[in-house]
């Protein structure tokens, strides 16, 4: 118990050290940008009767896991984000479907957050035996966010599919995506049910959002936190592209976000023109939109046109992971005097090791989202690299010092724990 308490303290110390190490980068790419409206996020929480189920990690109920996650997210949320909270299925304990399918209320208005007030409001929630009007709640959440310029995001947390039927939540999501208000809906499922997965994937995919299944409060808090922090990222509608089976036939891509479908066991190839002195930055996400076998991964490789691997990024997960992502960076050296600065094509190869259980459909392939950026070194003074990593010798030195201090402190704490154990 003593070691556990000290390990928590050590984690806090490391957080402080890392925050200090990357403070300049955080300020450079912070949420609030001068002259721009604040990003707005609304968390939509299912409070229907099934949220009482105690099937989360450690025997925790689904609603308790959600409340714990909300508290952690509120503590860590950037001050600049305007956040609201809406419930569905919270106020109608009866069997009246007409009333139950109108049961969605705004628990906390979208705006600057009073953390204590928001936490108190969330703590009062108790699951009822009500219905699950997801389609209605999404429409109401869109109204809550308003129509002012700026990024708008809905994060839906539920353990079930819509139980009302009208309006159909997938249709609502498509309507909202087509309205031109730059809304993204991310969905979090607190169950591994296939029907829930299918509907939540449909909602997220319609707006360029993500679907993730989570099974404990820590996972839920981490994912909500990521989505809230991502709220300041400008919405960019992905462009449809079809990757090739070999590099030579691959489509030529510029900077942007692209969507494709990856067949099981078949890599997809793309090409990006990069000039000497520029840096290629790419990331890929492959989503499991149906039941999958456990243990899967995604591989992103940068390859020269003559087949030489330049660099790679990998990601791996298990049966509870529904989206696998990875990324890479590849800088081309500055041309030497007299050398040509003509762009060369760098091939990007996306592979995945997802597989489906017997009886699950293999077609269509899995949704793939590919982000590509090409940055000119001398023209890009930012010290922030892709995927939130710092670059240069200073961050590396700071990371080394942090690692050394952490190792020494951990060794001392373990020894103290052993000594105290012997003393007792």
Features:
424 residues, alpha/beta, Jelly Rolls, disordered N terminus, single chain, Rossmann fold, six-stranded mixed β-sheet
Structure description:
The protein folds into three domains: about 1-20 and about 390-424; about 35-230, 3-Layer(aba) Sandwich (Rossmann fold), CATH 3.40.50; about 240-385, Sandwich (Jelly Rolls), CATH 2.60.120. It has helices at about 1-20, 25-30, 60-75, 95-100, 115-125, 135-145, 170-180, 195-205, 215-230, 395-424; strands at about 40-45, 80-90, 105-110, 150-160, 185-190, 210-215, 240, 255-260, 270-275, 280-285, 295-305, 310-315, 325-330, 345-350, 365-375. It has about 425 residues and is of the alpha/beta class. Helix 3 (about 60-75) links the parallel strand 1 and strand 2. It starts with a helix and ends with a helix. The longest helix has about 30 residues, at about 395-424. The protein has ten helices and 15 strands. This is von Willebrand factor type A.
Write a concise synopsis of the structure shown.
The chain has 424 residues and is of the alpha/beta class.
- What average pLDDT do the residues reach? 75
Can you tell me the residue ranges where pLDDT is under 50 for at least 5 consecutive residues?
1-32, 378-396
Summarize the biggest pleated sheet: 6 strands, mixed
- Overall, the morphology is globular
Helix content: 25-40%
Give the CATH H-level superfamily of the largest domain.
von Willebrand factor, type A domain
CATH class of the largest domain: Alpha Beta
The total of beta strands comes to 15
Counting copies of identical and different chains, the oligomeric state is single chain
In total, how many domains does the architecture comprise? Answer: 3
Looking at CATH, which topology of the largest domain would you report? Rossmann fold
The DSSP helix count reads: 10
Strand order of the largest sheet: 3-2-1-4-5-6
Instruction: Evaluate the radius of gyration.
Output: 23 Å
CATH architecture of the largest domain: 3-Layer(aba) Sandwich
State the distance separating the first and last CA atoms.
13 Å
Strand content: 25-35%
Transmembrane segments: 392-414
Keywords: Membrane, Signal, Transmembrane, Transmembrane helix
InterPro entries: CLCR, VWF_A, vWFA_dom_sf
Organism: Streptomyces xiamenensis
